[in-house]
Please model this.
Amino acid sequence: MILTFGEFQLDFDRFELRRNGQLRKVEPKVFDLVAHFAKNPGRVFSRDDLVASVWRGRVVSDATVSTCIKNARKAVGDSGAAQRYIKTVRGRGFRFSADVEHDDVRADSDSEARTADAARWGGPGPSLLVVPFRTLSDGPDTARLADGVSSDLGTILTRIPLLRLSSQTARYRDRDVTPSAREIHEDVGVDYVLEGTLDERDGGCRINVQLSDAKSGFRLWAEQFSVPGPVDATRDQIVTAVIAKLEPQLHRAIYNTVRATHGEPNAQELFLEASSVLALKGWHAASFSTAAGLLRRSRKLDPDFALAPAYLALVTGLGNRVGLSGDREKSRVETLEAAERALELDSMDSTVLGFVGCALADIGYPDRALPILRNAVEINPANAQAWAALGSACLLTRRVEEAVQHLTHGINISPLDSRLSIWGAMLALGLMQSKDLEGALRQGELACQRDHRSYLPRVVVAGIHLLRDKPELALQALNDAYRIKPDLETAQVLPLLGRELGSSLLKLR
Model:
């Protein structure tokens, strides 16, 4: 919503005050006070009324209220003597004296502001600042651990496509009081803020972490983690535990923001929506179809945006491999074209390489995929998708030991990823080929547990049971796969299990 009075505009979506289109920097509470006045023009508010509405009844001094009113007047060009908008009503309080125009879509009259309204992020993608974690315990080991954890989280989060990590972290180090998320947004312009505290407790560490929407100041997610063990040995455990819960919450926040964008989405926003759909809803026929449609639109809007064809290639390629696409030959052609185009646009981005390498392996070019995927993980070792794709490509080229190693690593560094059901099924296949049937069964059952709508790990588990000479359990798992995918075809089973095992399994029905 936009409120316009005189030459001023109050933008409630961005929490911004502009004068003739130019941004005026105001503190959050000053913005709240001006907004309260502008929403209620002509009404007289006593100091108590303002405290109740703007400060939500908190105990604040008269000096605090007076200072805020003074700064609000300054923000709209008033003063104690010249009271054009915020007028003092002697003995009663204050009144906002202006004609206020409500406009739900207009942010400004010029085309630049309209463009900014359509492009939600004010940049090529969402941005996040990781505030250095604070320690609640004394000691250099705890301080080093806090610094290390916040640094590692920032590094790993770079694997989320288009997420920009602010480099302004250092300005919030060693402050007695960390500014609010709203204040950080006004200071450095980020969309999200991640902060936390770390404390030594009972032979281990306790960590409180929270993610906030910087523009609104609302807390989006918070959780407490307890990690046993000595301080100097818990860093990896802490980072893994936090990233597992944090990453899905960031995807959800980005998805909700993109969906709330006014006007036509741009190519980057369509990509972010597609990525978030798969991250939140899983890898299934419906989500594949939705994501592919969004990515095709993204490509059309910006033919030079490499991530769109790269991710489209991954979606259509994997859909082709696991039977989630309709016309398989058509999807194969589309996958190859999109993969080639993505490499032409950007062959140095780890995310692009990870998507493309996975796609090429899925449509029958694993030998070409391997160097691409090795390059992807060398550029960004935190790219879990690329590690899992590398393991899958190794599996296709009979590098079984290497496949198990890479798939295990990919799963370990992204332990709550929406793709774990597929990755786990591939790991189970690798363990099955290495003759570790018990390990394969554990991973296969875990892959089934991770996604109740995925047929693929159930086919793998059925094959493992048959190798264990348990035909009854094999048929049970196979029937479960058919329950999920009634149109399951022989051509989707044999590439997974091999012709001999797959044919033997299908004869059980």
